[in-house]
Design brief:
about 325 residues; Rossmann fold; 3 strands; mainly alpha; Calcium-transporting ATPase, transmembrane domain; disordered N terminus
């Protein structure tokens, strides 16, 4: 063995010997900092996996910085080079780190999809109203953007990581087929239910079509119906995109989100069924028959069930494909 080490190899032979040793060996000992970094680099270049590194000393700094996920097991020199530091002197925190990392990327994608759906729901509502010569009112825009979207987008990201590390990896790219299909199909679903409520409204015997006068024609049946339905759709897409296991805990464990949903859900139902007069005046709504209020609530419930079932169906397909 001593002769093998001391023998002078050419650069090509040295590289070949290193690759053979790295690809065959399972345990490495008494490695220099450069050798550790070399091992990490080789594994990154020759495997399809992301490489994690744990270290507790100054001689691990180079490998910790080179690796995809570096975890320092001390607060000394290694903690400077590693993105993550643990006070527990063993590799068990790596499991928690992987769980939290997967939760972070899944949460980021879910918030992105919610913001995309929020924009498209509002876009569809405005396009339909524009075609009639109407639009959403200033207070309607303000209430949606300020009092609904901001609290929901902040609280839906506070769901913790799942207690077990899944064998399947989450989708690592935002522009991917599952994410794009999820957003596209949900846009179609929300748009279809808005079109349904609009065309069904025109079939009602008490309905009076809007006759545009001037620049703003907000107080009309079309505006009130679409605004109330879209209000519920913002809550629906939050529930739909708050996916739980295998990467995150259940939505029910996110108490801040549940409080927001309970408050906004109650306000939404009250706004539809028994709106206070000052709210009606401020939001520029029009009084609608009681049976039509029940129709809006029923269509909203059907929207929730269909959207939720379709999203869970897509998630099951994505997880099953990823586990193969």
């Amino acid at each position: 063995m001593k002769e093998l080490i001391n023998f002078k190899y050419t650069d090509k032979e040295t590289k070949f010997l290193q690759e053979e040793v790295i690809s065959q060996a399972k345990i490495y000992a008494r490695m220099s900092p450069d050798h550790k970094a070399m091992l990490v680099t080789h594994l990154q270049n020759n495997t399809k996996f992301m490489i994690a590194m744990c270290g507790d000393g100054a001689n691990d700094c180079k490998a910790l910085k080179t690796s995809d996920v570096g975890l320092s097991l001390s607060e000394a020199e290694a903690s400077i080079a590693a993105p993550f530091t643990s006070k527990i002197p063993n590799i068990s925190p790596m499991i928690k780190l992987l769980r939290e990392g997967r939760t972070a990327i899944v949460t980021s994608f879910q918030v992105f999809k919610f913001m995309a759906l929020y924009s498209m729901i509002q876009f569809i509502t405005v396009i339909i109203l524009y075609s009639l010569g109407s639009n959403l009112g200033d207070w309607q825009f303000l209430y949606i953007d300020l009092f609904i979207i901001i609290p929901l987008s902040l609280t839906m990201s506070r769901t913790g990581s799942y207690s077990k590390l899944s064998k399947t990896l989450p989708i690592g790219e935002l522009i991917s087929v599952p994410n794009l299909c999820s957003v596209a199909t949900q846009i179609c679903i929300q748009g279809a239910f808005q079109a349904l409520i609009y065309f069904y409204l025109k079939m009602q015997s008490w309905f009076t079509p809007l006759k545009p006068q001037g620049d703003k024609n907000i107080i009309c049946y079309e505006n009130t119906s679409l605004f109330l339905l879209s209000w519920m759709q913002y809550l629906i897409v939050v529930i739909v995109f708050s996916v739980g296991k295998p990467y995150r805990k259940s939505m029910w464990t996110n108490y801040s989100l549940m409080i927001c949903l309970a408050i906004f859900g109650t306000l939404t139902v009250l706004m539809v069924m028994i709106p206070p007069p000052f709210i009606v005046d401020t939001m520029e709504l029009i009084e609608i028959p009681f049976q039509w209020k029940l129709v809006i609530v029923g269509v909203s419930f059907a929207n929730l069930v269909f959207s939720y079932a379709w999203e869970r169906f897509q998630n099951c397909i994505t997880i099953s494909v990823g586990s193969r």
